[in-house]
């Protein structure tokens, strides 16, 4: 049987149409993906933490005596100068009123002290008389000795009696002083509050600022009774700030003294700089917002930014810190969104000639966005980010941006 050319042409066209329909029907559409080019750039690993500012040196001013603190001469925010600004005044406590029994006892004590004073004064008068007599006898004996009428022994006896008389006068004077002091002490027991106010030349004990700075807080602005050691106010310098950050113990062990930090979310227009100065040696158990027990401790940071860049930052302000744990300038890195675990190995999909190829890699340090590539990739490789479960090695892919 001989095929005519027309028949052959129609047959070929039909076969081609069948093959084309089969290809369109059974072909696999390329999977739209997002691609990222692997590059070398600086990589910074940070530990993020919330913190609170505080003034380094806060001076707690307390009452040195028991009495009445007068109305505060300063208010919160007032500037003070060391040794010059009056920050508080305390009036010494006044004696209370006596009941009838205590009053009688005090009056009896005063009478007893007055009698003792009279006795001491009488003893002093007698001692002075004896002293005058001994002195007169000594002088008369001296005259007799010069005339060779009396012996030297008699003169020595007169000198001894004069010395004893002088000592007796000194002792009598001392007893008079003691009696006067006792009388003055017992008379104070009879004083009333009105008598104390009239006899006090200076009203109050004035307290000056212990350091330059501003008043941070005042315990009470009104007049009130206080005891020794009662807090009156706090003084500090807002320009001398530090930051206290609350860290997990597992994060703190990875930090060293001198680590730098970026201070953000403090309310200012630009981030501030800080440096780690100390870490608490002991952690404390705290309950998180989720009810989980955590071991946390305080880390102290000095703010290194100039004071003029943080003029509005004060004591007790909330801040957010990004603390540098590790930094390297030239690191081959891949997005965390591109890596996944396959058979306990880190894996990525590498785009090659429109297909996806699985590639096992080794990673090192990582932050919240990128991971350091130790092995398995080179600069310029393009990897699939956010791969879905349907993407398999060898699948045809197309970059999502090419569809727009």
Helix and strand arrangement:
Layout: H1 5-26, E1 31-37, E2 39-55, E3 59-62, E4 67-69, E5 79-80, E6 86-92, H2 100-146, H3 152-188, H4 193-199, E7 205-208, E8 213-218, E9 224-226, E10 231-236, E11 241-248, H5 249-252, E12 260-264, E13 272-279, E14 284-287, E15 293-303, E16 318-335, E17 340-342, E18 345-352, E19 355-360, E20 362-366, E21 370-375, E22 382-385, E23 397-399
Parallel strand pairs: 1-23
Antiparallel strand pairs: 1-22, 2-11, 2-16, 3-10, 4-6, 4-9, 5-8, 6-7, 8-10, 11-15, 12-13, 12-16, 13-15, 14-15, 16-21, 17-18, 18-19, 20-21
Helix pairs in contact: 2-3
Short structural description:
This protein has 404 residues and is of the alpha+beta class. It has four domains: 30-43 and 330-403, conserved putative lor/sdh protein from methanococcus maripaludis s2 fold (Beta Barrel), CATH 2.40.420.20; 46-55 and 238-326, Efflux pump adaptor protein, beta barrel domain (Elongation Factor Tu (Ef-tu), domain 3, Beta Barrel), CATH 2.40.30.170; 59-87 and 210-236, RNA polymerase II/Efflux pump adaptor protein, barrel-sandwich hybrid domain (OB fold (Dihydrolipoamide Acetyltransferase, E2P), Beta Barrel); 100-191. It has helices spanning 5-26, 100-146, 152-188, 193-199, 249-252; strands at 31-37, 39-55, 59-62, 67-69, 79-80, 86-92, 205-208, 213-218, 224-226, 231-236, 241-248, 260-264, 272-279, 284-287, 293-303, 318-335, 340-342, 345-352, 355-360, 362-366, 370-375, 382-385, 397-399.
């Amino acid at each position: 049987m001989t095929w005519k050319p027309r028949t052959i042409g129609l047959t070929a066209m039909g076969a081609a149409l069948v093959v084309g329909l089969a290809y369109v029907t059974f072909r696999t559409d390329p999977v739209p993906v997002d691609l990222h080019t692997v590059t070398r750039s600086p990589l910074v690993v940070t530990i993020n933490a919330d913190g609170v500012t505080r003034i380094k040196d806060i001076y707690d001013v307390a009452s040195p005596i028991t009495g009445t603190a007068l109305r505060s001469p300063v208010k919160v925010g007032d500037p003070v100068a060391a040794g010059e600004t009056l920050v508080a005044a305390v009036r010494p406590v006044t004696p209370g009123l006596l009941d009838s029994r205590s009053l009688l006892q005090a009056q009896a004590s005063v009478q007893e002290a007055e009698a003792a004073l009279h006795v001491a004064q009488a003893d002093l008068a007698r001692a002075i008389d004896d002293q005058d007599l001994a002195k007169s006898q000594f002088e008369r004996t001296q005259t007799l000795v010069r005339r060779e009428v009396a012996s030297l022994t008699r003169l020595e006896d007169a000198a001894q009696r004069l010395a004893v008389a002088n000592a007796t006068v000194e002792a009598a004077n001392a007893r008079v002083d003691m009696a006067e002091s006792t009388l003055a002490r017992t008379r104070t027991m009879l004083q009333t509050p009105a008598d104390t106010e009239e006899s006090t030349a200076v009203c109050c004990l004035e307290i000056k600022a212990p350091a330059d700075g501003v008043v941070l807080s005042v315990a009470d602005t009104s007049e009130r009774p206080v005891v020794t050691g009662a807090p009156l106010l706090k003084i500090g310098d807002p320009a001398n700030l530090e930051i206290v950050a609350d860290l997990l113990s597992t994060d703190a062990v990875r930090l060293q003294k001198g680590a730098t930090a970026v201070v953000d979310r403090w309310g200012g227009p630009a981030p501030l700089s800080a440096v780690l100065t100390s870490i608490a040696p002991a952690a404390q158990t705290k309950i998180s917002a989720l009810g989980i027990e955590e071991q946390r401790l305080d880390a102290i940071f000095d703010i290194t930014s100039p004071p003029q860049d943080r003029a509005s930052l004060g004591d007790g302000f909330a801040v957010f810190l990004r603390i540098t744990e590790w930094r390297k300038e030239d690191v081959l890195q891949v997005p965390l969104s591109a890596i996944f675990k396959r058979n306990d190995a880190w894996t990525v999909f590498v785009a090659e000639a429109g297909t996806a190829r699985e590639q096992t890699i080794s990673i090192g340090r990582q932050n919240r966005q990128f991971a350091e590539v130790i092995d398995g990739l080179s600069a310029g490789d393009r990897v699939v980010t956010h791969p879905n479960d349907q993407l398999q090695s060898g699948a045809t892919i197309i970059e999502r941006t090419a569809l727009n």
